[in-house]
Write a structure and sequence with these properties.
This protein is α+β, with helices and mostly antiparallel strands. The protein has a domain at 24-82: 2-Layer Sandwich (Ribosomal Protein L30, Chain: A), CATH 3.30.1390.20. Helix content is 27%, strand content 19%. The protein is built from 3 helices and 3 strands; from the N terminus they run H-E-H-E-H-E. Helix 2 packs across helix 3. The longest helix has 10 residues, at 41-50.
Length: 86
């Protein structure tokens, strides 16, 4: 039986979202791409405070230092994209 090819691509380093600086975008679209089940209670509370209630849900948030800190804490569970200015 061969080695599992996915073994080398696991962990937060490979799943972590990049969080843009405030100079790039004023608002961010955040989507939860991985479940919070099995993670620390503080991470679950952080997801709830961001506005993500369930797996695959998304929300738009202001790009502030406080919000970037929360996004950094759960960066392996989310996907972050800048919202275009209209």
């Amino acid at each position: 039986m061969g080695r599992n090819p996915v073994v080398g691509r696991q962990g937060p380093k490979f799943h972590a979202a990049t969080i843009p600086d405030e100079s790039v975008a004023k608002r961010l679209r955040v989507k939860q791409i991985r479940s919070g089940i099995g993670h620390a209670e503080t991470m679950l509370r952080t997801l709830r405070s961001i506005g993500l209630r369930s797996h695959q849900s998304s929300t738009e948030v202001d790009n502030t230092a406080t919000m970037r800190g929360m996004l950094f804490k759960v960066r392996h569970l989310i996907q972050v994209t800048p919202v275009g200015e209209n």
